[in-house]
Structures are given as C-alpha cells and as structure tokens.
Write a structure and sequence with these properties.
Blueprint lengths: L1 E6 L7 H14 L4 E6 L1 H4 L6 H18 L6 E5 L5 H10 L4 H5 L2 H8 L6 H4 L1 H10 L5 E4 L4 H18 L7 E4 L28 H9 L18 H9 L2 H13 L4 H28 L1 H30 L11
Parallel strand pairs: 1-2, 2-3, 4-5
The chain binds adenosine-5'-diphosphate and tryptophan.
Length: 328
Amino acid sequence: MKVLSGIQPTGRFHWGNYFGAIRQYIALQGNEQSYYFIADLHALTTVRNPAELAGYVRDAAMDLVALGLDPAKATLFRQSDVPEVTELTWLLMTITQMHLLEKCHAFKDKKAKGVAADAGLFTYPVLMAADILIYDSDKVPVGADQIQHIEVTRDIAQRFNSLYGETLHLPEAYVLDASAKVPGLDGEKMSKSYGNTIPIFDSPKKLRKLIMSIKTDSTPVESPKDPETCSVYELYKLLATPEQQAVLADRYRAGGMGYGEAKQALYDAAMEHFGAAFERRQQLEANPSIVEDILQQGAQTARRKAVEVVERVRAACGLSSSPVPFAR
Ligand code: ADP
Ligand code: TRP
C-alpha cells in the first residue's frame, strides 16, 4: 500500500494546514509506504516571485520535519526534483479530454469571475494526476476540495489504460477529517487568501499578539458565554485535552471570565503543543543541510520509482522506453 500526498508551498503553513492536513499526514506515516512532497511546480501557477517561492519551499520542508515528518518513516521530496513528472504530464495530456478540465473548480471559478486563466492553471489537474500515477500510489490523503482532482486522476488513468492496455494503477482518495475545519482570526475558515491565519512558527510574541486579536463578541466579562460559538474555544479544542476543554467550557458558562483569559489559555495550550516543534525548527534553521539532505535522499527514492513508471508509460504509447543517455 502506498500513501502519497502533496502540499503547495504558497505561504507560511498555518494552523488550518496543520490540523486539516499536516497532522494527519504525520499520523499516517510509517503505517504503510508514505510519500509526501512539496508541490513547487503547482505553486508556480500562483507564486511568481522566485526568491519568495524558494523561501516557501525551504520553510515548508523545515516545518514538515520540525512537526514530525520522519524521513525514516516517509519519503519527503520536492516535486520539481523528479522531472519525469512533467514528462508524464505531457503523455497524460495527450489523452485527457477537455471537458474533464473545464469542470475543475480552480479553473471554473476563475472563468466565472471573468479572470483570464493561464494554461498552467487549466492543466493543473493533469500535473496532479501525474504526481499520483507516477508512484503507483494507492491512497491519496486530501482535503474535501481535492476529491474532484482524484476523480479526474482516475478518469485519466482509466482512459489511458483503455487506449493502451493496463499500465496505470488507479488510486483512491482518502478524505482527511473534514471536521477539522479550523477558524481564522475573524471566525471565517482560516486561509492565506483571507489574511486571517495563525502561522505555526511565528515567534511567541507575535503568536500572543495574533491570539489576542481573535474576533469575539461583546458579551460583558461577568455574563455567561457559549463556548460552542466562540472561535477561541474552537481553536482551544484542537490543542487541549478533553479534561482541559471541560474546565474552560465550564468557565465560559459560569460567567465572570473575559475573553482575554480564554485567549491566554489558548496561547498557553499552543505553546505547550508546538513548543518542542518550535525548538526543533530552530535547530533545523541553524543547520539547513539536515533538511536539504532529507530532500535529496527523498528525491532519489521517489525518482527510482518515477523512472520505472515513465518507462512503462513510454513503452505503452509506442515511444522508446527511455530517452537515449545524454552526455554533457
Ligand atoms: P490556504 O487556504 O491557506 O491557501 P491550502 O489550500 O494550501 O491553504 O491548504 C493546504 C491543506 O491544508 C489542504 O489539505 C487544506 O484542506 C488544509 N487546510 C487549509 N486551511 C484549512 C482550514 N482552515 N481548516 C482545515 N484544513 C485546512
Ligand atoms: N493540489 C493539491 C492542493 O492544492 C496539492 C497537490 C499537488 C497534491 N499534487 C498532489 C495533493 C498530489 C495530493 C496528490 O492541496
């Protein structure tokens, strides 16, 4: 069984990414063969500043390792370190029907807004299909918004197999826990695009400031409050033990506690939850070669498999199974 997923380096990772995806990837590692990659080729469809992109990729890798992605249990690599994936993208593109891509939401949403889309955004799901199919992946953990792309991947693989014979392995989506929808500072879904995020690795000082800025209602200090409608409590639930949650919920309901105190409890819980990762992150930052080595090793492992699958696909299409060796 091979588990594979990718995450785009389009900004600093935040609590939404952690609870909605990264924590679940980490929980899955080691049970089966796991591949996780930083989808830098996909990020090119939105990040156009080279220094910014390079920084996001580097941060993404350090964040994942600091948070517990363990190279002894999972293969971690950069998407662009496996160039065969772009070759497979073309081979798949030649048999991908336009209507499949026209209905994909990223492109459809842009079109509906009257914004011109680049070919990269339109064909983004084909690159994603190549990402998955190139490792003969079985199980793809993704958020609900990506299920459509896994269906497209399956459609593409099926069409390829029906045209050229059984070549590509059909993956299944493994939908990540949707209940982990993390609210942002304004109470809406936490997302980079809404500017309401709590980055995982901000300094403690910045973190405290952000937590203190979480939007709450204007119930006076002495009045009872409903924890279940409060974003501070919703975030606290992600970090605290059931006992700690019950204690804070009782204090909400009893009245006499201001939101400032609840925010302080949230800050303390965050420091406890992310404290060890924060220290690991600082050590990695001081020794960047550790993470670079992990990525290079990961790319070797991933590429071995990718070359094997691309050779199979090239042969199935009637191309020579591998290009002639190149001597510089
Ligand atoms: P953003 O919305 O900040 O651009 P992405 O779309 O890059 O984040 O999300 C990367 C992963 O993190 C996806 O699997 C997504 O489902 C998950 N994720 C992002 N924000 C949240 C959130 N607020 N709650 C739960 N999961 C989230
Ligand atoms: N498109 C995914 C996202 O935005 C990231 C991604 C790229 C991916 N390739 C993938 C996820 C392959 C799973 C498998 O979240």
